[in-house]
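Example record for the data management plan.
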Amino acid sequence: MAFLLVLSTGCGRFGKNNTQSTEQQQPSGNNGPGRGNFGGGQGRFTPEEQAKRLIDGLGEYIKLTDEQKTKITEISLSYSKKNAEMFSGRSFRDMTDEERQEMRSKMEAIQADREKEIKALLADDQLGQYDEYQKAMEQRRQEMMQRRQQQN
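Corresponding structural encoding:
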C-alpha cells in the first residue's frame, strides 16, 4: 500500500522546497488510457512517469550522478511494471479483503527489493539523505491518508 501511495502522490512533489512546475502537475481525475493499472485514486502514472518522478524527488534530497539516475530509473521502471502486471487492470477497490491483503504483501516485498537495489547504488553519504527522503515521503503518505479519512 505504501508503494502505491508513493507512486500516486508523486515522489518529488512534496520534497524540501515543496515546489512543482506546472508541467509536472497532473490534472485531477485524469486517469485516461495509459495512466497505469493501479486501482483506485487519482493521479495514476505510467511506469515511465513514476521513474521520472522518483528521480525528481530524490534529486531534492540527494545529488545523484548521471549514472545513478540512469540505474535508478531502470530499477524504478522494472518494479513499476511488476506492480502494474500484478493488477492487470483490476482495481484495489474491487478486490476482496483477502485479495487486498495478498496484494499488499506482494507489493511490500517488491518495494523492499526495490529499496535494496536503490540503496546499493548510493554512496555512504547519500544513504542518510535517502533515509531523510524516505521519512519525508512517509510523513506525506500519513498526511494524505488522514485527509482522505476526514473526507470520508
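Summary line stored alongside the record: Helices lie at 2-9, 47-59, 66-87, 97-121, 124-151.
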